[in-house]
Amino acid sequence: MKAFQFYSQAAQFGHVGASYELGTMFDRGVTGAVEENPVKAALYYDAAVDGGMAAAMFNLGFMYEQGRGVTRNLDRALSLWEDASALGHSKARLPANDLS
Hints:
- The protein is built from six helices and no strands.
- It is mostly helical.
- It has a single domain, classed as Alpha Horseshoe (Serine Threonine Protein Phosphatase 5, Tetratricopeptide repeat).
């Protein structure tokens, strides 16, 4: 799949959006391109989090809440959702309110 190749190359050069897209692909799996792989998804989301992407913080928060691809850590999940909310991600407030 061309999108996967494009995002892979861009992520190697530190493109935050590409890292997020790869995280999403590995989080859900894409028929004909990549199999679901929560560990890789978390790694790519983490790279996007480092770049300040609120959507990646939101998704990675759920991975920490559920222990998917990472060790379950509710404090880390809450921190990610609070950071995403501070950056304007409106949906991040809902799960953060449930944990706090």
